[in-house]
Amino acid sequence: MAENTIITRVLTSVQQLDAQTWNALLASQTTPTPFMRHEYLAAMERSGSATPETGWNARIITLWDGNELLAACALYLKTHSYGEYVFDWAWARAYEQHGLPYYPKAVLAVPFTPVPGSRLLARSPALRVALVRAVQEWAAVMQLSSLHLLFGDADDLAACEQAGWMQRSGLQFHWSNRAGPVWQDFEGFLASLNQEKRKKIRQERRKVREAGVSFRTLAGPEIGAADWAFFYRCYERTYLEHGNPPYLAPEFFAAMAQTMPENWVMFIAERDGQPIACSLIAVSADPARVSAQNLDETVTDQALPAIKNMAAYGRYWGALERVDCLHFEACYYQPIEWCIAHGFASFEGGAQGEHKMARALLPVATPSAHWVAHPAFADAIARFLDREGAGMAGYVQELQAHSPLRRGAPPAA
Question: Do 157 and 182 belong together in one domain?
C-alpha cells in the first residue's frame, strides 16, 4: 500500500460508517472498550446527549485505501470543556485574557466517559501516526486553537508523541485482582487489607444491612424496562440535587438496553421490598458468557487470559432515600464482590475520588495528549505541564505510602 493512495475523509456522524466495519477495527486495537463501540457513540448522537446543541459536534476522521477503512477516530468540536474530565479551564481563561478565542477546540474522546482505552483506531502503528497527522492538518485548516486526546492508551500516546504533541497525566483509582492466586471471594480480598481499612469496610457494610437494605443484581438482558426506568430516576435525582441536569438523556439508556445489553450490570438497593437506590457498571464482555466460562472447570489455558483481562467500569449511581454508607456499598463493594465472583480482573472507579483508596481502589495514571496551535501558548502550556507532572508524581508517591494493602500482600496485577 503506497502512502499516496491513502485518502482522508471527514464525516459528520459515526452513523455514516457501517457498524460492523467500525467495531472490527476497534476490536483489533490494544485496549478496546465498550465505550468506543459504534452502538455507544451512535446512541450519544441519536439520544441528543452529544450533539452540536449540547456542545459536542462530531467529526469522524477516517483514512481509506479505496473502499478499505485503514484508520479512524471520533473527534468532537467543542464550545466548552464540560463532560471531559481532563481540565483545561485555566488554559481557556488565559486565552480569553489575551483576547484570543480558545473555543472551538477539538477533543478525541468519548463524551462524558472518562474511561481509558483506544482512541486512535488503526491497522498499524504507522497508520496511527498518519491519522494523528491528518487530524492535526484538519485542525489547522479549521483554525482550531487546540486538539486534546483524552484517556488514550499507550499506542495512542506513542503516536501523538511522535507527532510532537504534549503529554499530560491525570489520576484515577482502580481496583484490581491479584497476580498469583486471585481472590476467591470478598473475604479473601478483605484479608489483603490492613486491619484499619478491613474493619472500616466491614462496619460500612454492616450499617447498610442493619438499615434493612438488600441488593438485587441484574446482568445483561436480565435488566428489564422497569429496572432501566428506575435507574434513570435515581441517576437524574443525583444530578438535580447538585444543581445540574443530567448529561445523558433517557433515550441513551434505552439504546443501551436495545443495542448493548450484554455490557451492563445493575445493582438495585431495596428496603421493605421497594427499590431505593441503584448503581450501574459497564463490563467489557457478556457477564453470562464469562460466568459460564468460570463455572467450567475445563477452561483452556488459551481462554484464561481473556477472562482475566475482563474489566468492569463504575459509571452511574443515584438514590431516592438517604442511608448511611449506601453509596459505598452500591458503588464499590457490590461491584467488587461481583467482579471477584465472575472472574473480572479489574474495576475502574471513574474520575477523581481520593476517598476510593480506603476501599482499596489504588492510584492509576490516566494519560492525555495535547496539540496547541499558537506557538507562544504551546510553549507556556508545555512549561506548565512539566511543573504539573512533577507535582503529580509526588502526589502519587504520597498516596502509595498510604496504601490500604497490608504489608506483605502481593502487588496489584
Answer: no
Measured between alpha carbons, how far is 273 from 6 in angstroms, rounded to an integer? Answer: 60
Give residue 220's region: left, alpha or beta (phi > 0; psi -120 to 50).
left
**What is the extent of the structural domain holding 22?**
3-164
- In angstroms, the CA 209 to CA 326 distance is 10
Last residue of a domain, one of 142, 164, 186: 164
Percentage of the chain surpassing pLDDT 90?
Answer: 81
Residues 26 and 108 occupy one common structural domain: yes
Taking the model in full, what pTM does it have?
Answer: 0.92
Q: Identify whether 320 is part of a domain.
A: yes
The C-alpha atoms of residue 57 and residue 105 are separated, in whole angstroms, by 11
What amino acid is encoded at 317 in this protein? W
Domain contains 20 = yes
CA–CA dist 56, 6 (Å, integer) = 28
pLDDT, one tens digit per residue, over 321-336 is 999 999 999 999 999 9
Q: Which residues contact 228 (CB under 8 A, 6 or more apart)?
A: 253, 254, 257
CA angle 362, 166, 132 (to 5 degrees): 105
Contact 82, 372 (CB under 8 A): no
Count of other CB atoms within 10 angstroms of residue 95:
20
71 and 206 co-located in one domain: no
What does the pLDDT look like over 287-340, one tens digit per residue? Answer: 555 444 443 333 334 443 444 568 999 999 999 999 999 999 999 999 999 999
Q: Give me the helices (H) in 28-124, please.
A: 38-46, 89-97
Cell of 117: 482505552
Domain count along the chain = 2
We report the CATH number of the domain holding residue 67 as: 3.40.630.30
CB 31 within 8 A of CB 116: yes
R_g of the chain computed on alpha carbons: 22
Q: Tell me: do 217 and 76 sit in the same domain.
A: no
Same domain, 266 and 300: yes
